Amino acid sequence: MKKKLIFFLSVMMVCLLCWGCGSSSSTTMDLVGEPSDYSSEDNWLTVPEDEEYDVDVIYFYPTTAPVTEGTEIEVCDIDNEKMRDGAKSVYEQQATAFEETGNMYAPYYRQVDASKLAGMTQEEMLEAERNETRTDVFASLDYYFENYNNGKPYILAGHSQGAMMICLILDEYMEVHPEYYENMVVAYMIGNAATKGWLEENPHVKMATGAGDTGVLATWNTEGPENIDEYNMVVPEGAVCINPLNWKTDETYAGVDENKGSLVDGEIVKGIADAQINLKRGSVICNSVEPRQYANGPETEVLFGPQSYHRWDYGFYYENIRENSKLRAANFLK
């Protein structure tokens, strides 16, 4: 069972960051180790050859680092082939939603082996992410703003471990660089929750409250109704979210008729997922799909519950994300 669990953690590319942005955060910028060289385009999954848009998108992929042996915290190398191959694959499933909105930038970054985070305390997991992973992400932003941005508005987007990096960016990096924060259109921190407590600790971060507001955070985790009372690592107590169909923060139901299209097996299909926020849980509940087909599966039920749709956070609502990013970018440019 243990081997199966570790295998599925790797394949599903999930980031075991159960406390999300609910933990107290450091106000320092002390970094661990030497950063990767982002002057080399080889350390970027994508950098646009020609800038077609007036807005940029910076995307951080979820966990694709391979499982390693041993019990110590391990971070994969920046040139790890399995991590890079996985990053390219998940880019197609997620980041392509933004390709009609902005010029796409996606750095490779060293990642924590997700299986090493299982069973850790809250503090241990947070510290595990404040290592070379955080160092690389912050270094990639330094290089981007100094060499690529040229004062343009930008969107942050990520999933799972990539969403946790956005949490650290908004908390720590932007606190040091408010001049950059002013040009942020929106941060899509998907698949890892912000909490009410974290937002209180970071009053400069504003939750999105509608479809078109800018300079805000949009975040959600997707579950089935049977998950509401179950343990889910990425849905901590006090989690908050927005509905990715109607872009409301209350419990207003959005049916599949409001879903403009889902990405399934690489194809855009008629929207299959509805969405309704459970305010007490702090997650988006989807009732319209068949759990046996879309839930994570019994191998990871102990971690995410019987009806987690973690790997579908983007795919279920793909076309709505695409249109929403266009709307927010247009509003910012006005």
Number of distinct helices: 10
Query: Main sheet?
Result: 6 strands, mixed
Hey, roughly how much beta strand do the residues contain? 5-15%
Into how many domains do the coordinates divide? Answer: 1
Mean pLDDT score, rounded?
A: 88
What is the gyration radius calculated from CA atoms? 18 Å
Shape: globular
- For the termini, the CA-CA separation is 54 Å
> How do the SSEs run, as a string of H and E?
HEEHEHHEHHEEHEEEEEEEHHH
Residue ranges: pLDDT <50 for 5 or more in a row? 1-19, 23-28
Spatially, the strands of the biggest sheet line up as 1-3-2-4-5-7
**Helix residue percentage:** 25-40%
Could you give the count of β-strands? 13
How would you summarize what this structure contains?
The protein is of the alpha/beta class and 334 residues long. Helices cover 30% and strands 14% of the residues. The protein has one domain.
